[in-house]
Design goal:
The chain is of the alpha+beta class. Helix content is 29%, strand content 30%. It has helices at 105-112, 143-149, 152-172, 198-217, 257-272, 280-294, 327-337, and strands at 8-13, 16-21, 27-31, 38-39, 50-54, 60-64, 71-73, 76-77, 82-83, 89-92, 95-100, 129-140, 177-181, 184-190, 230-243, 252-255, 276-279, 307-311, 320-325. The strands form 3 sheets. Strands 12, 13, 14, 15, 16, 17, 18 and 19 form an 8-stranded mixed beta sheet that branches. The longest helix is centred in the middle third of the chain and has 21 residues, at 152-172. The radius of gyration is 21 Å and the shape is globular.
């Protein structure tokens, strides 16, 4: 067997080891269904079982997608995204694979600095450009409490299902999951050079609303101790953005304070006892979108639903101004706007 020059999975077959390359993209799905990147004909594996995600700093995450029989790393069942290490043994159903990442330090450094590595002969350096983006961070509330009160198998299936459905919903509203982080997901909307489009700003809020509804209904499918809830932070601003993917599978990397502030905004919802918080720039664009799509001279439309707050945030010298509200406020705004 020829050793790959990049990260790969080793699958034992009757004719020897088979290599499944993890080069040339940012995510790969595993399952029994034909729509996966890696199709494994094992009846104990779910149709869409798990997903691998590569990050811009060279790390690889393994994410269970709500599989019935679980995803295991070195014999331990995983329920949230976990970082893989060279040589880890992965088990899906009755199928075992080994994760290998023979990447030297110089290559890892190049990836961090924005080097793009493609599986074809057209490898080029990724160009980072300064672009207007909106970042959404969504986090599951009371996750640790639920973990302590729920059977491990049920917990893994429920959370894996949440990750899978979150990805589908975000895709439905024009974006993709940029990162899976613990019990949270981050998505990015890329705007044009002339500013945001009104429809795209409303899509972000529709995505948040749909995610909240989906999360609140999970206890109807799984015997959870209480209905799950989420909190969301949305921030709009300029960031360094690069694309190393293809047209049908974008692999954008967004860096900078715009991204960091979105995480701070999500954290602020816990302090405020609310559900969703938006940065000032997001709010300005939202006011404009609500005003135009409502077709009425109501620039104060969003003021009726969201309140202004100023909070001290970790890592920021000056207080951060934001607009926040509940999911009921958000749904009322969307009903008045769309």
């Amino acid at each position: 067997m020829t050793t790959s020059s990049g990260p790969y999975l080793a699958l034992k077959t009757g004719s020897g080891d088979r290599q499944l390359s993890l080069v040339g993209g940012n995510y790969w799905t595993v399952g029994r269904g034909d729509d996966n990147n890696f199709v494994l004909p094992d009846r104990w594996i779910s149709r869409n079982h798990a997903m691998f995600q590569g990050t811009d700093n060279g790390k690889f995450y393994l994410i269970d997608l709500g599989s019935r029989n679980g995803t295991f790393v070195n014999g331990r069942r995983v329920s949230v995204p976990v970082i893989l290490h060279d040589g880890d043994l992965l088990t899906f159903g009755q199928t075992e694979l080994r994760f290998y990442s023979p990447v030297d330090t110089s290559l890892a450094a190049d990836v961090t600095l924005g080097g793009a590595f493609r599986s074809d002969s057209t490898a080029t350096a990724m160009l980072h450009v300064r672009q207007l983006i909106s970042v959404m961070v969504v986090d599951i509330r009371d996750f640790t409490v639920m973990t302590r009160q729920t059977d491990e198998k049920i917990h893994s299936e429920a959370i894996g299902t949440w990750f899978r459905r979150a990805g589908e919903i975000i895709g439905q509203y024009g974006s993709w999951v940029d990162k899976y982080i613990g019990d949270a997901v981050m998505a990015v909307w890329i705007h044009g050079s002339e500013g945001t489009e009104d429809a795209s700003m409303l899509q972000i809020l529709q995505a948040v609303s749909t995610l909240a509804t989906m999360t609140g209904q999970l206890h109807q499918q799984f015997p959870l101790p209480f209905p799950l809830r989420i909190g969301a932070g949305i921030n709009t601003g300029y960031a360094m953005v690069g694309n190393t993917g293809t047209g049908d599978r974008p692999d954008y990397t967004a860096l900078g304070d715009t991204v960091n502030a979105a995480f701070r905004l999500e954290t602020s919802t816990k302090q405020l006892g609310l559900d969703v918080a938006m940065g000032e720039t997001t709010y300005r664009y939202l006011q404009k979108a609500g005003y135009l799509t409502a077709g009425k001279p109501k620039p104060e439309l969003s003021d009726a639903f969201f309140r202004r707050f100023t909070l001290e945030m970790k890592g920021y010298e000056a207080p951060m101004t934001m607009w926040a509200g509940t999911f009921d406020d958000l749904d009322q705004f969307l009903a008045a706007t769309l």
